[in-house]
Amino acid sequence: MTRAVLRLAVWLIIAAAVLTGARNACASTVENPMTQDLNGGGYAISNVTDVITQGPRVDVRAYASFSAAVDAIGTSRKTLLIPNSQDVTANKTVPSNVTLEFLQGGSLAVSTGVTVTLNGKVDAGLYQVFSGAGTVSLAIDSVKEVFPQWWGAVPDDTYAGTTNNAAFAAATDAAYGCGVPVRITSGTWTFSSLWHINKPISVIASGSGSVTLTGGDSDGVIWYGYRTLPNQNLYFENKKIEGFTVIGTNATGYSFTSSKSLNVTFKDITAKDGNAGGIYFGAAVNCIFEELGANNNAGNGIVFSYFTNSDGTTNVPCTSNVVIKPYIRYQNGSYGLHLADCTRATIIGGNIESNDYTGAQIDGNENTFIGVWFERNALSDVSVPHLRISGDQTTVLQCHFTAVQTPKKIIIDDDVSYPVVKGCSFNPAPNSAHRDIMVGSNVTKWEFADNKHSTDSYDGSWSLIYPSRYFSDKEVSDQLPINENGDMVVYHGRGTIAAPSGASTYFTLPVTPLSINGKKMGMLSVVIFDDASTPVLNGSITCVPLVVNTSAHQYWQVVNSDALKWTAGNSLNKDIVVLELRTNGLLRLRSNTGSPEPPLRHVIYTLTVYNPDGSLL
Fold first, then answer.
1. Is pLDDT above 60 for 221?
2. Closest to 289 in 3D by CA, of 253, 230, 337
3. Lowest-pLDDT range of 237-241, 270-274, 436-440
4. How far apart are alpha carbons 547 and 600 in whole angstroms?
5. Would you say 271 and 237 are in contact if contact means Cβ atoms under 8 Å apart?
6. Residue 543: which of 610, 482, 446, 488 has the closest Cα?
7. Within a 13 Å sphere around the CA of 307, how many CA atoms are in the beta-carbon half?
8. Ranked by mean pLDDT, which of 7-11, 241-245, 309-313, 530-534 comes out on top?
C-alpha cells in the first residue's frame, strides 16, 4: 500500500468518527441552551411565562395585577410592557428602575381616590394610556412633555368637548407635577367649557396654522393664570405659551385670557372669529409677545390691561412688555389693539389693519410704537383714526399710516403730555379731508419731526411734512414752557384763528406775560395754513419788541421775515397774517381780512424768548 493510499484511509476513519458523534449529539435532549441573560445570570426556558418575565422586557399579563408585576420586578432594571387595560385600585409607586411601555390599547385604569406615582420613564404614543377618576403623578425626568391624548383627548371631534376638558385638566396637573410642558399636536380641539390652566406650566402647540382650540363657555376657551383666592396674588413665571389658534364661539368676554404673568413668552397665538373679544392680558409684567394675531372677533382684538383680584382689592396693570410683530387685522369689531391700563410697552413691527374702528387705542402711559404698519382701519366709522393717543409720553417711531378708509391717521387727545411722532410716513398727502396728526387742547411738550409722505403733493419727493403734521381743529388755551435752557425759554403751541369776520380777528398765543421793555428778543417760527389749500410753510419771523407806548397795541419790529409781515397799520392784503404784541404782554397773530374772506386759518408756532446779553429771563 502506497503512502498516499494510507493517508486517505486515515482521513476517512476520522471523518466517520466525527459524523457518528454529530448524530449522537443531535439525538440528545437540550436542557439549557442559553446560559446567560442580560442581567448576567443563567436561566432555563421551560414555558412561555419564562419568556415574558425573565427578560429585560416584562409583560404585565404574566402577573395577577399591575401592582404584582411592579413588586416582582423589585430593584431590577426592567421595562414593563402594558398591552391591555390594568386596574389600579390602591395607591402604587413605580420605582425609577422600572420603565412603563404602553402599547396601543394598554392603559392604567386608576380608581377614584387612588394615586399612581410613576418615578420611572414613561413611553407612550398619541393614544389613551390613563383612565379613571384617580390621579397619575409623573416624577421629574419621567417624561419630556405631556400629551392630553394620554388621558383620552380626541382632536377633530366636535362631540369630544367634555372628554377633552377632563383630559386637558389632567394633563395640566401632571405637567405641573413633573415640570414639563403640555404638548398639543395638530388638529381642532373642542372644549365644552373653559380650559383653566390653573397651574404655572408651559403649553407648546404645533403652530397657529395647524392647532385650533375652540368652543369653551362664556369665560372663553383658555384662561392662563390664577383667578381666585388663595393664589390670585401670585404670578405665573418664566414659562412659554406658543403655537395655536383659539376661537371663542361661546365667549362673552375674551377667547383667551391671561392673568398675572411674569417673564412669560407668548408666541404665535391667534384669536379669530370669536363671539366677543380676542385676547386679554391682565397684569402681564416683563413678558415677550411675539407674532400675536387677532382676526374677525366681534369685540377688541388684543387688550393689555389690569387684573382685578376676585375680592376686588387690587388692580394690577400691565407693564414693561415687548410686543413683536403683532398681526391684528380683518374686521375686529372694536379696537384692533388696546393698551388700556398698560405702561412702558414697546410694540415692534407687525400690522394693525382693516379693523372696524380705531386701529390702536393708547390709554396707558410711556408706551412706544416702532415700525408698525397701519392701514385700512375705521371700516365702520371714518371719524376714528388709525392711532389714538390718550396716554402721556407715547412715542411713535418709523411707523407707516395709509389712509384709504381712515382720513385721520393720528389723534392726540386733550391734556396729553410728551407725545412724540418721528420718522413716520403718511399716505396720502393731507388735505381738508385727510389729516395726519390732529392734536387736542392743552397738549403739552410734544415733538413731531422727520415725518414724510410716500407720495408728496408738494414736490413729488419724500419730503418732510412740517406743515401737514400739525393739522388740528382744536385750540390750545394754555401752554407752559417746555424747555428752560439758561438764557432762554421755548414755547410750543398751536391753535386756530376763527373764520374772520373783520380786521380784528386774531389768535392769542398763550405766552403770558412777555415784557416789552425793549430788552428781550424773540425768534418766532410759525406755520400758517388754511382749510382750503395744501399747507404751505410760511417761514419764520425774527422780531424784537418796540418801545412801550400808550396805543391800544404795539407790534413787534420785524428783523427778518419770509412770508409773515409786520405792520403798524391795518391796510394789508387779506392773505397776510401779522404779529402783534398787546400792552398787557399777550402775543397774538392777527388775520387781516378782505372780500371774500379767507378760510379758517390754523397756526403752529415755536417761540424762543431770550435776552440779548444772555441773562436769564
1. yes
2. 337
3. 436-440
4. 32
5. no
6. 610
7. 25
8. 241-245
Closest to 471 in 3D by CA, of 412, 414, 415: 412
Backbone angles phi, psi at 12, to 5 degrees: -65, -40
Residue 444 has pLDDT above 60, yes or no: yes
Q: Which residues pair with 246 in a beta bridge?
A: 213, 271
Backbone dihedral region of 253: left (phi > 0), alpha (psi from -120 to 50 degrees) or beta?
alpha
Instruction: Give CA separation, 331 vs 57, 208, 271, 296, 515, in Å.
Output: 58, 19, 12, 5, 56
Q: Is the dihedral of CA 155, 160, 164, 165 positive or negative?
A: positive
Please state the three-class secondary structure of 260-305 as a single string. EEECCEEEEEEEECCCCEEEEEEEEECCEEECCEEECCCCCCEEEE
Helix ranges (H only) for 339-487 are none
DSSP symbols for 202-255: -EEES-TTTEEEEE-BTTBSEEES--STTSTTPPEES-EEEEEEEE-TT-SSEE
Query: If you count them, how many residues does the chain have?
Result: 617
Q: Say how many CA atoms lie within 13 Å of 361 toward its Cβ.
A: 19
| Structure-block grid coordinates of residue 42 | 443563567
Distance between CA atoms of 395 and 447, rounded to whole angstroms? 9
3-state secondary structure of 367: coil
Grid coordinates representing 499 are 373764520
HSE at residue 491, side-chain half, CA atoms within 13 A, is 23
Which residue ranges form the domains of the chain, and what is each CATH number? Answer: 483-610 (2.60.40)
What pTM does this model have?
0.70
Mean pLDDT of 54-74: 92
- Give 7 or 521, the one with higher predicted confidence: 7
How big, in percent rounded to 5, are the helix, strand and coil portions of the chain? Answer: 10, 40, 50
Q: Under 8 Å CB-to-CB from 380, ≥6 apart: which residues?
A: 356, 357
Cell of 542: 425774527
Helix (H, G, I), strand (E, B) or coil at 509: strand
pLDDT digits (tens, 9 = 90+) for 282-316: 999 999 999 999 999 999 999 999 888 766 667 78
Q: What is the pLDDT of residues 166-202, one digit of tens each?
A: 999 999 999 999 999 999 999 999 999 999 999 999 9
d(CA 421, CA 602): 20
φ/ψ of residue 60, rounded to 5: -65, -20
